[in-house]
Amino acid sequence: MTLGTINSKPKPVNLADVVEKARDTFNCGVTRPIEWRRQQLKNLLRLYTENQNAMIAALQKDLRRSKMEAVLLETDYLINDLKNTLNNLDEWVKPERPSKGFVNMLDDVVIYNDPYGVVLVIGAWNYPLQLLLLPMAGAIAAGNVVIVKPSELAVACAQFIAEMIPKYLDNDAVIVVEGGPEETTELLKQRFDYIFYTGGTNVGKIVYEAATKYLTPVTLELGGKSPVYIDSTVDIRVTAKRVLWGKFINAGQTCIAPDYVLCTKEVQDKFIEAARDVLKEWYGDEAQKSPDLCRIINSRHYSRLQALVDACKSKIAIGGGYDPKERFIEPTIVANVTGGEKIMEDEIFGPILPIVPVENAYEAIKFINAREHPLVLYVFSNQRNIHTLFNEQTRSGSLCVNDTIMFYSVETLPFGGVGNSGMGAYHGKATFDTFTHKKSCLIKNFAVIGEKLGSMRYPPYNDSNMSR
Ligand code: NAD
Q1: Domain named Aldehyde dehydrogenase: which ranges (predicted)?
Q2: Atom of ligand 1 nearest to the CA of 154
C-alpha cells in the first residue's frame, strides 16, 4: 500500500488509521509464518532483479549516480543481502536453546525469536534505496509489519519505492508512507513497536524523543565526522586511492566517507602529490566532464558546500571549483587545516577533504577524542602497534584499517554508531536480530522428581535447605 504522493503535496491520510490497520494485520498473525516471510522476500528479490535498470535510472536522476556506483553500492548490495537472508532464514528463526543448570535439567529453556510487531523504517536520501529497503527486508524476515518512509529529498527513488512496493509485496503488511518532516512528525506521534531511523543526528534526537512516549526501542543510524589517520609506513599511492575513492563516491554524500585526514606534514605532502595523480587518472583534467562524479542532492546542500569551499580558499591544494547550475563541487583537498576552522565543525557530507597536520599518532588520538565518537575510524599504517593503539584508545562505531568503506559490505560485521553517531546495529544476521525480540521461556513439567528438586523454595523456610 502507498499513501500520499511525492511529486505533489502528499494526499492527506490519517496516519493513526494507517498504523491501527497495520496493527490489526500484525495481530491477525499473517506475518509470523516463515512461509509468508520467505514468499515476501522472494517477491522483493524479484522486484530488485526485474527493476534493476529502473533503480539505476532513479539514482541517476536524483544524484547523477554512475551505473557502476549504483550497482555496487545499492542494487547488488541489496540483492546480495537478500540472498544471504533467504539462505539463512531457517537457521535464524529457530528458537535458541541455551545451556541450563542442574535445577533446570528436566525443563525446557528456550529463547524464541519473536517479531516486535509494527515497525517504522525512516530512510535518508544519500543511499535512498539501500538505506530504506535493507532494514525493511530485515523487518519482514523477522515477521513484522513494516511502514517505510523514504526520504522526500531523493524524489525519483521515493517515487520508485512508492510505485513498486505495492506491486510486489503484501499491501496490508508492507506500507509506504510518502512525505517529509510534516508527515514524519505525524507518523512519530503514533505507537510503534520498533523505530529504525537513518539520517542526521539532529533529527535522530527528535525521533528518539518521540519514541520515549511509548518506550519504543529504536535504532538510530546517524552520521558525524569520520577521521582518517595515515602514518609514514604506508604505500601512499594505494592509501590515496582507497581514501579518495571512499571520499568521492556519491560526491562525498556518504555517512561513512572519510571526513578529514590526520597525518604529519611530510605525509600530507606525499599524500597530496599522490592524490593529484590519482584524481587526474580517474576524472581527467576537467572533473566536471567526468561521468563518474555525482552531483549534490539539492541547492541547500550545494550552497552549504560552496560556502565551505569559499571559507578555505587560501588553503586549497587540489580542486576548489564549483558550478551552481549543475550543483557540481569539484573533488577538493584542503591542506594545513586546524581544528578550529569552519570545515571542522560539522560533518562535511560533500567532496571536500581537509587535512589536519599532527605530530604523531598520540596527537591524532587526542584530536579524535576531543570530538564526538565517529561512525567509523580509518587507520592507515603498516604497524600492528599503531592499529592496537587506535583500537584501544578511541571509540567509534567501527574501525577499518588500511581501507575505507569496504568494511560495510562484510555481512558478518554489525554496522552502527556509538554516542552521537548512533545506537544499534544491522547488516546480515544483525538486521534480523534488530527486528527480533528475544523472548526467554522456561517450560516446566509436573514430574515428581522435578517438583522435589525445587521444593525447598516453599515455606515454611528452613535454613538447613539453603546451600552455602
Ligand atoms: P534526510 O534529510 O533524508 O532525513 C532523514 C529522514 O528524516 C527523512 O526521511 C526525512 O523526511 C526525515 N526528517 C527530516 N526532518 C525531519 C523532522 N524535522 N522531523 C522528523 N523527520 C524528519 O537525511 P539527512 O538527515 O540529511 O541525511 C544525512 C545524514 O544522515 C548525514 O548526517 C549522514 O551521515 C547520516 N546517514 C547515516 C547513515 C548511517 O547508516 N549511519 C546512512 C546515511 C546517512
Answers
A1: 16-440
A2: 3
Of ligand 1's atoms, which has the minimum distance to the CA of residue 180?
A: 11
Residues sharing a CB contact under 8 Å with residue 73, sequence separation 6 or more, in sequence order: 127, 130, 249, 250
pLDDT band at 450 (very low <50, low <70, confident <90, very high): confident
How far apart are the C-alpha atoms of 189 and 168, rounded to whole Å? 29
pLDDT digits (tens, 9 = 90+) for 197-221: 999 999 999 999 999 999 999 999 9
ipTM of the complex as predicted:
0.94
Residue nearest to atom 2 of ligand 1 (CA): 124
In this structure, the residues whose C-beta lies within 6 A of any atom of ligand 1 are 122-126, 131, 149, 151-153, 180-181, 184-185, 198-200, 203, 206, 221-223, 255, 347, 349, 375, 417, 422
What secondary structure letter does DSSP report for 426? B
Q: Rounded CA gap, 267 and 147, in Å? A: 49
Inform me whether the pLDDT recorded for 263 exceeds 60. Answer: yes
- Quick: pLDDT tens for 285-315: 999 999 999 999 999 999 999 999 999 999 9
Nearest 5 degrees, angle CA 338-CA 339-CA 340? 95
**Beta-sheet pairing, 118-122 with 218-221:** unpaired
221 is catalytic: yes
Q: Ligand 1 atom closest to Cα of 179?
A: 11
**What is the CA(200)–ligand 1 centre distance, in A?**
4
Given 69, 178, 221, 347, which residue is catalytic?
221
Q: Which residues contact 281 (CB under 8 A, 6 or more apart)?
A: none
5, pLDDT greater than 70: no
CA distances from 388 to 239, 391, 392, 394 (A): 19, 5, 6, 10
Q: Give the model confidence (pLDDT) of 125-169 as tens digits.
A: 999 999 999 999 999 999 999 999 999 999 999 999 999 999 999
Cell numbers at 286, concatenated: 576537467
